[in-house]
Design a protein that fits this description.
Keywords: Membrane, Transmembrane, Transmembrane helix. This protein is of the alpha+beta class. Helix content is 34%, strand content 30%. It has a 16-stranded mixed sheet that branches. The radius of gyration is 30 Å and the shape is globular.
Amino acid sequence: MFYTNRNNQINFLNELTEYAYLISFIYRKLLNIPYMILYILSGIAIIYLTFIAFIKLRFRFWSVQPVFHLYNLFYWVWPCGIIEHGQSPKTKFYNEKVLTRKFKDVSAEKKALFYTFIKSHFLNNKKEIYNPPKFAVLDYFNAHNRMSHISLQFELLTTPNKGYSSDKTAAKIVSAMTSRPLNAILNNNEVRVDYVDFLCVHKNDRKKGLAQKMIFSHYYNARKDGAGPVFLFKREGIINFIVPLTVYNAHVFPLKYLKHPNLELPDNIVCHLINDSNFSLFSHFFGEIKKNFKCCITPEQSHIKHLVSKKLLFICLIMEGQTPVGVYIYRTPFTSYKGKQSIECIASYYKVGYYDVFIKSFRNTMVLINHEYPVDILIMENISNNNDIINHLLKKTPVLWKCPMAYFLYNFAYRPFFSSDVFLIN
């Protein structure tokens, strides 16, 4: 009996010892939890700082510009809107050779040089040819309610002048950039925006940092000359580490399947191609469009009407009797791909309950436009209500290719919008 009790005592002591070790182990682990959290936070901080260092080294220009950088946690929580309220100080990216003027003050000779420069150097490559008539470049700067700006950098060329003691000198454009006014409404807040276009560097002068210097110099000079503080850029292809206003894909479709009218619509549904004489139909509908998107960025109606009159924009309005129920906005880019002319659908909208009418009327808009401007390729930007058309086309039509696109704001920090919440005419 003694031995039995002694064995029980020994077993009990052993169990107590095991529990003591277990409690001690758990206690030590509990004590270590703050250190584990510290290690995790330290690891996250190291990754975060490494990411910032990579961006600052890889994108040296953009990392010091007044934009919403992806790593800026403060702007994600408290977006500030305008970043630089006053005039920006000059930096190493300012180029004294860049001349910035209001577009209306530029001579006809310089405008002609600018047009020739853009036509020759803006977009052309083996597969993609940009061949605009003169008005398709210069008319984008007319009929605005605020000033547009142009920046040019010239380089003097010296050529031998045979038979004379002195050589000839001539000026060529090596880089250019423009901005023109738009009106933005972001979640019911109005913002003055200038849209950047025709940022271009001469083919022989690329990869020398001229584009970066042109961007900052134009921003600095234009603001000093009365331009608004916020600029809007559009980027195609690889997206950088700036938080975009919106990001989406553009889908490219062949039009050979879409050149026949859809006769399945009711008799009271009519598609109108907007022109000078019936522009008021679109004008009255425009107010409703703006109310139905969280982000709406467009020019003044006077400028939209001007672009329509020049056939730089095609607006197709769907009417049920005398009531507008949908609209499609097309832009003529004067860009051909392997010899095939293209058209861009940049925005669309339809009233609730008119999805079927909107989808079925789309083909009829293509028929109307082809009578005015023959095209073979449709570029559908996945923005506003275009997503519904794209999803419909993907079931019936092959995609030639697609390309990522984004809009981003310069000198303005704001959380991004879904592309379906954005209606934008530039």
